[in-house]
């Protein structure tokens, strides 16, 4: 695996109902910042994405937000965490830009948008478009139902065990960074 110097973080624009989600997002942001990795994200200040971005920037990351034109509103960007904000035409362009900027991808708890970003980048790895690491931060077992579904897909013959193992799963930000082999700076 090549050295990782940038990570794209997919996460919710909500903080969720469990304070552990926000705590883990903050801790992950701090760890990414302390390692001086570029932090690439969806460009909003809301929810887990804002928490992680703020903490990454405060701890040394260059923070790059990628925001579609339709979301270029005062509410979404009322607070600025980015070193650089890239405005793109649409969601497809947003994902493509985030994917091209990152050396690895991390999914925190989130909604359908987070799931869609994760599914696309995981599919791309399966078919050979990239060999970059993909990780789930499984805070408070949030991703357990997805993990169970992937395991069922293997058991039912819809997913190979090799593809299933491509997805790194970690229960804490620290163990996630260790799994990605990203050492402290």
Keywords:
185 residues; 7 strands; Rossmann fold; 7 helices
Structure description:
The chain has helices at residues 19-34, 47-58, 91-101, 112-126, 144-155, 161-165, 173-179; strands at 6-10, 38-41, 63-68, 84-88, 104-107, 133-137, 167-170. The protein is α/β, with parallel strands linked by helices and 185 residues long. The chain has a single domain (6-179), classed as Rossmann fold (3-Layer(aba) Sandwich), CATH 3.40.50. It has a 7-stranded parallel beta sheet, sandwiched between helices. β5 (104-107), α4 and β6 (133-137) form a beta-alpha-beta unit. The longest helix has 16 residues, at 19-34. The radius of gyration is 15 Å and the shape is globular. The protein starts with 5 loop residues before the first strand and ends in a 6-residue tail after the last helix. The relative contact order is 0.18.
Question: Strands, helices and their partners?
Answer:
Elements: E1 6-10, H1 19-34, E2 38-41, H2 47-58, E3 63-68, E4 84-88, H3 91-101, E5 104-107, H4 112-126, E6 133-137, H5 144-155, H6 161-165, E7 167-170, H7 173-179
Parallel strand pairs: 1-2, 1-5, 2-3, 3-4, 5-6, 6-7
């Amino acid at each position: 695996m090549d050295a990782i110097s940038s990570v794209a973080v997919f996460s919710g624009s909500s903080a969720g109902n469990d304070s552990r989600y926000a705590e883990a997002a903050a801790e992950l942001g701090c760890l990414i910042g302390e390692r001086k990795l570029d932090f690439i994200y969806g460009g909003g200040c809301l929810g887990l994405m804002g928490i992680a971005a703020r903490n990454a920037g405060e701890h040394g990351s260059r923070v790059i937000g990628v925001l579609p034109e339709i979301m270029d509103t005062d509410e979404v960007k009322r607070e600025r965490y980015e070193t650089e904000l890239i405005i793109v035409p649409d969601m497809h362009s947003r994902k493509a830009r985030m994917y091209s900027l990152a050396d690895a991808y991390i999914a925190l708890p989130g909604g359908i948008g987070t799931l869609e970003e994760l599914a696309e980048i995981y599919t791309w790895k399966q078919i050979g478009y990239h060999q970059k690491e993909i990780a789930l931060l499984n805070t408070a077992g949030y991703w357990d139902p997805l993990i169970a579904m992937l395991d069922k897909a293997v058991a039912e013959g819809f997913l190979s065990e090799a593809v299933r193992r491509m997805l790194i799963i970690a229960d804490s930000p620290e163990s996630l960074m260790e799994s990605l082999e990203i050492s402290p700076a």
